[in-house]
Amino acid sequence: MEKIASILTEIADTLCGYPLFAVLIGGGLFLFAYSGMVSLRRLPEALRALRGSRGSSSTGISSAQALVSVVAATVGMGNIAGVAIAIAMGGPGAIFWMWVSAIVGMSTKYHEGVLAIKFRRHSPTGEPSGGPMHIIEQGLGRKWRPMAVCFAVAGMFGTLCIMNANQLTEAIASTAAQAGVASRSLALHLSIGIAIAATVALVVLGGIKRIASVATVMVPFMVGAYFIMVTYIILTNLNEVPAAVHAIFSEAFSLRAGWGALAGIAIIGARRAALVNDAGVGTASIMHGTSANTSPVREGLVAMLGPAIDSGLVCTLTAFAILLGGDLYPEGTQGLGIALEAFNRSIPMGGYLLTAIVTCFAMSSMFTYSFYGSSCAAYLFGNRGRKAYTYFFILSLIIFAVVPMTAAVALCDLFYALMAFPTMATLIMLRRTVREETRLYFNNKPSKSTAYADTSGAPCA
Q1: What sign has the CA pseudo-torsion 231, 232, 238, 244?
Q2: Which residues lie below 8 Å from residue 385, measured CB to CB, with a gap of 6+?
Q3: Rg of the chain in Å (alpha carbons)
Q4: CA 218 to chain centre
Q5: Can you name the residues that pair with 129 across neighbouring β-strands?
Q6: CA of 19: how far to CAs of 16, 27, 94, 96, 271, in Å?
Q7: At what angle do helices 259-277 and 93-118 cross, to 10 degrees?
Q8: d(C-alpha 245, C-alpha 108), whole Å
Q9: Residue of 417, 407, 419 whose CA lies nearest to 166
Q10: What's the burial of 447, exposed, middle or buried (CB within 10 Å: 0-12/13-18/19+)?
Q11: Is the separation of the CB atoms in 106 and 280 below 8 Å?
């Protein structure tokens, strides 16, 4: 197993280093500039679009529910374990590059949201379905279908919640061992994996509407509770906050170890951010494609708020919690263990509280990722494939609960890269379509009182 993990890690490190950095950040910067800095200029319109997008219909979920479901997926283990790994590997400066990725990612998500509605398909019963595979086939033409198939295959495996199942099991097992409830063992990990799989099955077998309904309740609760915990850490360590902020900015551009080290820090931050906000990976467009909204631009405006919440807000909360109360450079990269130690040091019973929040984070991710993977399976094999994949997804949670973390992280990174390459290529090739949709929308935008009313089934704005 160790040899396999080593090989996977080497492959992932090669593919997810400079190539992934260039695709996600380089491509994202290009879209950011080409769109006229849409993520900054159109932020007020995005907030208004979100406020007016809460309705749904019998054939889809609302734009707000789509955004919450996407956030339910992205606000997961990566926001805690991923940030901890980034800080341990690249130092505080890696956080700055995660912020850059958030701004760039908002522009990328805007393009994904627009194209998700523009090129989605409908079933005979009128149910919408979207995602890069449909965008590629409908937007670029049938000759590009092999690339759509490649995305769908990578999507089935890349959305298996490898890291979430692994790290959640580790967190629960560690907490149980510290409390003296049980000793850490393979049997304990297996038991936890079975419990996680059973819980996920109760939600995902109910389909997209049940997933969206649960996410609508879970996401505000878990983000709010996490915000309160980190606020307590900041208030009790106010004198150390300036030093933490200085470390983030100074080490983001530090040349003490040369240009190679600077590039390494930027890549680490971007690589972890790719696992956090999913911008450019393509999964978000699968969820946004199911929205009852009929306006591509309005969906794009709502979609671009995702990275602001996960990479912008939640990752920043985690970073400050670790910088103010954690051991930045422990022996080995234990991911979640670094964050647990930081919360234990800063808050009474902090480790237990964080474990509860982490459980909500991880479970919400699993709910949405099951839909992503099953949508990819449905594209390849039809509805029977969707059902079979859902059961496979549930079973995989038990398997990955006992997989070594190095192999889990490597697999997760690898499949994400294989999704990102075709997605970003498609977004860049269809950038003119997004620009034209944007121009038409804002040139013909109705008054503010009606511009963002999400009346399902209404004609495009």
Answers
A1: negative
A2: 377, 378
A3: 21
A4: 16
A5: 121
A6: 6, 11, 18, 20, 10
A7: 40
A8: 27
A9: 407
A10: exposed
A11: no
d(CA 145, CA 29): 27
The answer to whether 317 touches 226, Cβ cutoff 8 Å, is yes
Give me 287's structure tokens. Answer: 């969820």
| Token duo for residue 77 | 């283990």
User: Rounded mean pLDDT of 135-148?
Assistant: 93
**Alpha carbon distance 293, 308 (integer Å):** 21
Residue 54 phi, psi dihedral angles, 5° rounding: -100, -10
d(CA 65, CA 37): 26
Single out the residue of 224, 248, 203 nearest to residue 369, CA to CA.
203
pLDDT at 451 over 50: no
| Cα 282 to Cα 319: distance, rounded to the nearest angstrom | 26
Is the Cβ–Cβ distance between 298 and 63 less than 8 Å? yes
Pick from 65-69, 93-97, 233-237, 267-271 the range whose average pLDDT is largest. 233-237
The mean pLDDT value of the chain amounts to 80
Largest distance between two CA atoms of the chain: 64
User: Is the pTM of the predicted complex or chain greater than 0.70?
Assistant: yes
